[in-house]
Amino acid sequence: MRGKTAEDLKLIDLLDPVAEAAGYGIVRLRLMGGAERRKLQVMAERPSDRDMNVEDCARLSRAISEVLDAADPISGEYVLEVSSPGIDRPLTRLEDFEAFEGYEARLELDRLAEGRKRFRGVLAGVEDGQVAIDLEGEEETALVPFAWIIDAKLVLNDELMKKGAETRAARLAAEDQQTSD
């Protein structure tokens, strides 16, 4: 899920060590567009606090650019875009489903399960490589094999917006503390 195409996956293999060495984790990578104008979109975060500010994006962009310039894995011209996953972020790794337990999410599967491919509910953690989710109207917690999930995203709601505001306030307070020291 971190990459959609074979080309995306090759780029992830190339850039994961670069991001990790710089102190970041790649959440998702997409190479988009046609031969004329392509965009390499990299969503990343600091593993320690799942945050990514503008300075982090610039730092990671420079590190990735050095490797891409040297390895030249993308034919033609492209624009590199490094960003945070955002508040209603994609869930692309098993660890994401654990970290956001208790939050509402949408899942899309690569096959039918109980007659449908799309599910919405509250994340209930991870168990033996499966995502646990409490679906609306269901008494039992559903277990969905992680390998079946092709798209997953947090649902933007009041609870998630509150968490985002708290995270932003904490970041700003820490930045203010650093500038006053």
Report on this model:
By secondary structure, the chain is of the alpha+beta class. Helix content is 35%, strand content 34%. It has four helices and eight strands. The protein has a five-stranded antiparallel β-sheet. Strands 1-2-3 form a three-stranded mixed β-sheet. α1 packs across α2. The longest helix has 23 residues, at 158-180. The model has no long low-confidence stretch (mean pLDDT 93). Its main location: cytoplasm. Belongs to the RimP family. Keywords: Cytoplasm, Ribosome biogenesis. It is found in: Cytoplasm.
Give the low-confidence spans.
Answer: none
Oligomer: single chain
CATH H level of the largest domain: which superfamily? Ribosome maturation factor RimP, C-terminal domain
**Secondary structure tally, helices:** 4
Whole-number tally of structural domains:
2
The H/E string reads HEEHEHEEEEEH
Intertermini distance = 42 Å
The count of strands amounts to 8
Biggest sheet: strand arrangement: 7-6-5-4-8
Mean pLDDT across the residues is: 93
- DSSP strand content: 25-35%
Specify Rg, calculated over alpha carbons: 18 Å
Query: What can be said about the biggest beta sheet?
Result: 5 strands, antiparallel
Bulk shape: globular
Percentage of residues assigned to helices? 25-40%
The helix/strand class is alpha+beta
**What name does the CATH topology of the largest domain carry?**
SH3 type barrels
Main location: cytoplasm
Domain Ribosome maturation factor RimP C-terminal: 91-156
Family: Belongs to the RimP family.
Keywords: Cytoplasm, Ribosome biogenesis
